[in-house]
């Protein structure tokens, strides 16, 4: 019996080549998209789950960022029995690593300092060395396989000494396997924090204002998270006594498995994390595109039923039951699906590199060979087979033999409205996707073009390795650079716009009794001038006034509002707490608000102080003319002052654009998937139109003989489909509005939701439907009416 079913399935596919091609090709595209997105979603959900204790590992977080003071981990571990173990990580910026006579500039977040307990908590495998003891001794370091190969080639790296930033000698004690792609951090070099007091200074390591450490805990199996978080907040508030009367910061803990997908609200996380929102968006897109392909199959199979009515009738007369016929057609659906699956896997293999480039992921075809993935794909095929095959199977099996043998041509007309309903659902999905893509395009354009309150054009940034005692060298470098014809202005700072304001200080204005927490930025002279930021009150820092270095502070307008300073703030004294001890400063200026961070965030209050030793980012404003030659000269001059340094200049506007790369990648993928959805829907509509025109060929011939014009015939068919597309718009618009509104809520600054994207998406959908159907209608309408009347 099964053999007979397969023979029948292949015979019908060969007999109806157009229908077979559209059905199989449409399903193949839908399944390929679904498989690609399945790999993507599985990868995103797998982050950090390779760690044995993942369920018990937590990260300590503040409301706006996950960074803590150096003493927080020890304080909490010593006082809270819920904590079994803890580790700190201090992430480093761009760093020069020297081995013998070779120097390497390692990128931001490639290097970290960590406690020895890090390798007890996380399950990173070692190729050489002992993870238990690798970081126990001072001045030791663990490196990855990549770094071992890059620096040492075939030489044994263990025992070798490398130098960081021309100052810090470290002995390599271990080589770990490259950290997995699905780890929320991926360091290449990890140095020991055992002698942190010596390296960073005991003053810094005992400061509650220096909040640059990531803190991880291994927790007991059972504990009350709300109660634990409350105790953390109270303990830290009690011991961080540099700010008495300051509000208690509400600390929270975040499970390791949640970090990658539930940290998008944090400022300056270790590396750009994803958002569960995008995982849900792509899951929905995969499902909807497969649904469109399934509806195509259902439509084409039921519309093509007229070619099989006599076959069905003869089988029934010969004794075939309704269930047997239904099973036959479901079996045929599975034949089509497995053929589509083979083609889909070829599509996946071909498209995976492109998908990786667009999504920024490193997904491999080998992941499809995992048992879990194979079972998930088979489940998708089985569910799709029953969903796509059940209605056509029972519809065709229900045809009555006597009526079928007498009038095969009219056998499927009673189900015409159902097929049009499916077309309407398809276009509802297409309209939602088009509308969403248009809004995403508008928002990304808005992000890239919004006035930020400073001049980002032709501004170059580079890390510079300086120390507290070489301010004279920096001053000489600045003077030398300003002599170059292409350079307009030079400054240096701890942070530049597009960085996150995670350094937390506090101010207490005159006449007030409570400290108010404010982010701070260390800057040097000409910082605001280089960025084109103006003072709305008072003045900017001046190198001619030496008191500005120790006694002055500049606030932004939002900070003045938060501090509730009465009257003119200029000249008023404020108590300040930064990394160093408490001091008194005068407000010399208030700058206009500008967007320091991304447009996901509202403008935050901030204070700016002169403090050279913490400034590591060189900022250079260049002329637009001949910028390339200016950059070359810039590197030559910088290297002459810092021969041991490695300078990598990049434009500030490029750095700002990188803040939105996740949204840009999502839009690009959304655009491609929307195009595929439109293509699949058009294929189905084309096939359905082909079958419907064939079934109405004689009717069209009669209309032409009676005087109907080609335009009237076109309007006849266009009106029928237009009605369903208009209904699809009515359904799609509220759904699209809800989805886009939810997405836009991620941004503090966003576009207004106007009616134009809705109207455009509806117009595009209607135009696509009309063009697809009109092609078939014109072809039949222009045929010889005599031939049309002979048809059937």
Name some characteristics of this structure.
13-stranded mixed β-sheet, 792 residues, alpha+beta, 4 domains, 24 strands, 25 helices, 49% helix
Q: How many DSSP H or I helices? A: 25
Low-confidence stretches: 408-414
Strand percentage lies at 15-25%
| Largest beta-sheet details | 13 strands, mixed
Helix content: 40-55%
Average pLDDT works out at 85
Q: Give the beta-strand count.
A: 24
Shape: elongated
Structural class: alpha+beta
Rg: 34 Å
Give the domain tally.
4
- For the record, give the distance between the C-alpha atoms at the N and C termini, rounded to a whole number: 33 Å
Per-chain topology:
Elements (H helix, E strand, L loop, with lengths): L1 H14 L1 H29 L11 E5 L5 E2 L3 H8 L3 E9 L3 E5 L2 E5 L4 E4 L3 H4 L4 E3 L11 E5 H8 L8 E4 L3 E9 L12 E4 L3 H5 L1 H4 L7 E7 L5 H15 L12 E4 L20 H28 L5 H9 L4 H38 L11 H27 L3 H6 L9 H34 L9 E5 L7 H12 L4 E7 L10 E6 L6 E8 L3 H5 L3 E4 L9 H4 E5 H7 L9 E5 L5 E9 L15 E4 L6 E6 L4 H15 L8 E2 H7 L2 H35 L1 H9 L4 H35 L11 H26 L3 H6 L2
Can you walk me through this structure?
- The structure is a single chain.
- The protein has 792 residues and is α+β, with helices and mostly antiparallel strands.
- It folds into four domains: 1-47 and 271-411, no CATH class; 54-258, no CATH class; 425-451 and 661-792, no CATH class; 465-646, no CATH class.
- It is 49% helix and 16% strand.
- It is built from 25 helices and 24 strands.
- Strands 1, 2, 3, 4, 5, 6, 7, 8, 9, 10, 11, 12 and 13 form a 13-stranded mixed sheet that branches. A six-stranded mixed barrel has the order 16-17-22-19-21-20. A four-stranded antiparallel sheet has the order 15-23-14-24.
- β16 (504-509) and β17 form a beta hairpin.
- α2 packs across α11, α11 packs across α12 and α21 (661-695) runs parallel beside α24.
- It starts with a helix and ends with a helix.
